[in-house]
């Protein structure tokens, strides 16, 4: 993307920058100078602090590290702090997520905002330790299925615990029209050769979803509430999302790790372990069969979105084809074709029920001679509907298997 003149305001000490290309626009706020402790004090002077933050004039030294989600600044005072810049801000729910997270979660202790927008989050510096991404990758690399599945179940449980708390904090009805509109924008922007619209299950209500969650965000039984990904700058949120989207984000991250390894392990049992772990602690309704029902979107539509977001980010900075997103998307048409073929049984079920009901109506009150045919049609309809539901692709099987 190319930097263009920005039409946005910026607080003192920040520059408003804007990038545009490929039908995308990204607006960001970047600090002008940040090399000395005095620069930090000047930068936050005009921002509104919230929560627990270090006294600006107590900072003795700073160390700046750029990341793909914004600058990270290590602050040294009487204690050590880590400040994370949000160049494209967040969706406005970061503090709510932190407040709703289970005890022991690694959440920001405070931060700084400007005109109601969070620009910096601050947390005590974390001790360097491992995380589930490292543990899962190590187990997969040596083909240790049992160890990998055990770790993935734990990761799923940790995410499910968060969603159990999020349900109590905020739950609103599903928003399928905006979800489908968002998918449509992604497909149009990326000039996709396929379309995917679904009804979505009523068991996927909106909540304080994390938006983007990785295996590296889980360590032991602790979940880290972090910054949004670049895709949130390229397509700002206009709606809330369900918990299923967070699970799909984890599932897709598992696919990244599996793709980059040289393992001989199958991906399906690994995905199943993660899903089972989440189901064991997440709200029962959100983890029900209806919520996972692929003919109504299930987890598949959210995994599809995760792949599109990877491609969106790669397109914005011309970093090459992201894997396994591109390979996964190559199977979408075949996956959709199989789902469409399944609908034949659904249509036959409706037709059989229709004929049964019409037959009963036309012969009402029916005689003993007239009853068998309508009842047989209704029974056939019920059986065909059961077949149709059982043909729904299971969530643990990846696109690359179901699309063949």
Report a brief summary of the structure.
Helices cover 44% and strands 16% of the residues. The chain is α+β, with helices and mostly antiparallel strands.
Structure description:
The chain has 404 residues and is of the alpha+beta class. It folds into 3 domains: 35-122; 132-330, Aminoglycoside 3'-phosphotransferase, Chain: A, domain 2; 339-390. It is 44% helix and 16% strand. The strands form 4 sheets. Strands 4-8-9-7-6-5 form a 6-stranded antiparallel β-sheet, with helices on one face. β6 and β7 (80-85) form a beta hairpin. α7 (243-260) packs across α9 and α11 (332-362) packs antiparallel against α12.
Features:
404 residues, alpha+beta, Aminoglycoside 3'-phosphotransferase, Chain: A, domain 2, 3 domains, six-stranded antiparallel β-sheet
